[in-house]
């Protein structure tokens, strides 16, 4: 069975506690502190496995936990770091926070490996707390706790072209004829219950990936039938082939069908209705001579809207070459980068949102100072040397209202902002 969604619990490892001990040797009766630091807890890492194409494995195992870090040891020995846990998922998997439904990560495009939850930092041993006045500290820092989170995994098929239309209009037949896919085909409604992928090979090495999206019905955008399960797979496609039964073999009006499906697409996600599309008027071999030409009616209705109509027969193959080359030409003029969903939530930083921070202006040094445990820990978790990390840190400052507070204090472009030894020039 094709599984395209799952809910699992993930947990990063707790940092090991710092150790309290004192050097005791035969000729050193009053040695100083030598308690070592605790090991870092293991991370939860998601990694794309090209050999997977469903989320079925997650139905048999619901909890994934990284290893805790070891406690520090005597003689300044560092505790062992906890082992990371690697969770393998198919390409196209979106990881969402189960409570807020916000996107944590999208395992698509070049994102094949990402740390989702970072392990807790190891605590410092008592050797770190010795001072001139406190030479025998009897305390150490506890390890930072790990993070436990329920996430929802959602697999969105990665395809260049989405094949949409009401049930039983011939989508599976078309897919089986123009690709290497072998969908199950029969003459009844909701024939296809799983998205089927196939590769269309054209001349000179050109081609594209096409997905037969299961038949939609009116009300799908409201979750009627299996609407949401089907509609989500169209979000990554760049072009849609809208297939209709031009011969009305089941008494349906093809023009009304197209408007009905487009309405469902727009209701689910307005961006879907804006995607380029072509109309494949199928079953032309079942149109009787002498009847009013339904394909011409489709052209008169939709071509003034910029939507081309192709008369085809998925059974005989008539008109398929013209359709496929036209779609390929559309794709050539578009951005080849896949649709990747932006991160909306980082659970590694969310646990610090209730901790305080201050924003102030230092007149003596003529710079703005941002401090507090929330900022210090965020800096510790973010690699601001990388462009991606720095942009993420900027977004964190904006989301927390820190940039707004700086502006309220009168900061201007080019002014200096200091955070724990790091200085930045402020620019909007």
Automatic annotation (TrEMBL):
Amino acid composition bias (Basic and acidic residues), ranges on this chain: 14-27
Lineage top rank: taxon: Bacteria
Keyword annotations from UniProtKB, A to Z: Cytoplasm, GTP-binding, Hydrolase, Magnesium, Metal-binding, Nucleotide-binding
Residues that hold Mg(2+) according to the record: 172, 192
Residues covered by the Obg domain: 1-158
GO molecular function: GTP binding; GTPase activity; magnesium ion binding
The organism of origin for this protein: Eubacterium ramulus ATCC 29099
PROSITE patterns with a match to the protein in the record: G_OBG (PS51710), GTP1_OBG (PS00905), OBG (PS51883), OCT (PS51881)
Protein's cellular compartments: Cytoplasm
Quaternary structure annotation from Swiss-Prot or TrEMBL: Monomer.
Single GO biological process annotation from the record: ribosome biogenesis
Protein name: GTPase Obg
Occurrences of domain OBG-type G (ranges): 159-332
Gene3D superfamilies registered for this protein in UniProt: GTP-binding protein OBG, C-terminal domain, GTP1/OBG domain, P-loop containing nucleotide triphosphate hydrolases
